[in-house]
DNA sequence: ATTTATTAATGTAGATTTTACACTTACATA
DNA sequence: TATGTAAGTGTAAAATCTACATTAATAAAT
């Protein structure tokens, strides 16, 4: 009977984390080499099992930390994957989570100690189980999110140039954007502070640095703005 | 250890179905009265447990059919809910699914036999567990979906008037729409067939009936159109 | 001191899309 | 044949989006 708890089947519930990162080389994804069977040695998303006394969000955070040392990463739930044989060992349903982080802010050392590695999004190895599908879906969501939130700022250093911001969006959307139109659209959101300071790395002229204005952003967010790039 | 299947905790996995329907009285939701403890007699989403040899999509379909007799309803996965005590009997994670159906096409008799009932979306009873939250999130998704798919057609009779279509969208978005602008936006999609036939119920003049042109719609869908109402 | 090379910064006109808005038409009923 | 009711229809102004090229600032080289 359906209305009976006792006769219902229990299953393993896993969480898999899709961590996107950005640095000067573009958009990347964080993967680990499995250190246990099955598929030991193959590349995989960062994953683990939900504990009985833990909510899914907490499991995702714990698992990410366990395998990478990363802390305080806000992840968003994406989708539950439930194909019968997706994990050959035992019936396992997996819930995917994703996040976007700034690679440079997140101690590369720690990640190294844990055997996690960044791969360019367009040059990543084949993954175990249904992890490739999970990543594809996460990329779609990431693209969608750029249109409703200025999500990219989390991926940049605190002070950044317009060019960096442009290149970030180009990497996420994988298309070229018109520089002038991009700048005026971003400016029209009024969520950036233009500093007096310039970044002199990139050119002789130097380019102005900006910071993200969190207060103004929160304000905007209430109005459900849309950003068409 | 995380890398051990045998030591991982197993949990119950449930599915809850949020079924939206539309008829001349507006947008409704399908609920049932629990016939077992806990919360027996209270109103609830249509839900049940995943079986070991079943994928989530199939479980949602089976459970919906078991409690309502409804068949061939395409549902879409929404979100996994995992609060520790969301179900007081036993640790249960629930994955929500939602669908939109045409109330008149789906034999009210069958639903009656199964004690399921339609409630106006704005006048539904309080629900058990976290089901209210599930419904709220489903409504948000429903609104979003109107902007990227002409999703509403599934809710109307095969032949419908522009007014019916307009009222459907107004119910989903819960805002008034300009009649002329609505019609021209819908027409510009070129996914309707205007029939020679008129519906004489609504007025002396009568209003033209339309059908949904599935082929043209499939064509459009490839181009990821957006419908800004 | 002057030239050169490099990237940053900036504005606009035309095209497209969106919005706001009111009168006429067709028909059944009285 | 007059009346009442909802259906059907078009446009001008505003807003947004797109495509596009020149000048400015500076460091390095001469």
TrEMBL record, chains A, B:
InterPro entries with a match to the protein in the record: NUDIX_hydrolase-like_dom_sf, NUDIX_hydrolase_dom, WH-like_DNA-bd_sf, WH_DNA-bd_sf, WHD_NrtR
This protein's name: ADP-ribose pyrophosphatase YjhB, NUDIX family
Origin superkingdom: Bacteria
Organism: Flavobacterium nitrogenifigens
Residue ranges occupied by any Nudix hydrolase domain in the UniProt entry: 10-142
Pfam families noted in UniProt: NUDIX, WHD_NrtR
């Amino acid at each position: 009977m359906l209305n009976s708890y006792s006769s219902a089947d229990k299953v393993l519930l896993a969480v898999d984390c899709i961590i996107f990162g950005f640095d000067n080389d573009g958009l990347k994804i964080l993967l680990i080499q499995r250190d246990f069977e099955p598929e030991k040695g193959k590349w995989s998303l960062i994953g683990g099992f939900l504990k009985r006394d833990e909510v899914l969000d907490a499991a995702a955070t714990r698992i990410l930390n366990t395998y990478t040392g990363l802390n305080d990463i806000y992840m968003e739930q994406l989708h539950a994957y439930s194909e019968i044989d997706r994990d050959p060992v035992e019936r396992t349903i997996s819930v995917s989570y994703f996040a976007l982080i700034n690679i440079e802010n997140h101690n590369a050392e720690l990640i190294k100690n844990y055997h996690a590695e960044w791969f360019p999004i367009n040059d990543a190895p084949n993954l175990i189980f249904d992890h490739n599908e999970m990543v594809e879906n996460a990329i779609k969501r990431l693209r969608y999110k750029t249109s409703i939130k200025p999500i990219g700022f989390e991926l940049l250093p605190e002070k950044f140039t317009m060019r960096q911001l442009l290149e970030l969006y180009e990497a996420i959307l994988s298309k070229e954007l018109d520089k002038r139109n991009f700048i005026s659209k971003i400016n029209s959101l009024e969520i950036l502070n233009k500093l007096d300071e310039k970044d002199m790395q990139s050119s002789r002229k130097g380019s102005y640095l900006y910071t993200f204005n969190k207060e103004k952003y929160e304000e905007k967010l209430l109005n459900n703005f849309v950003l068409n790039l």
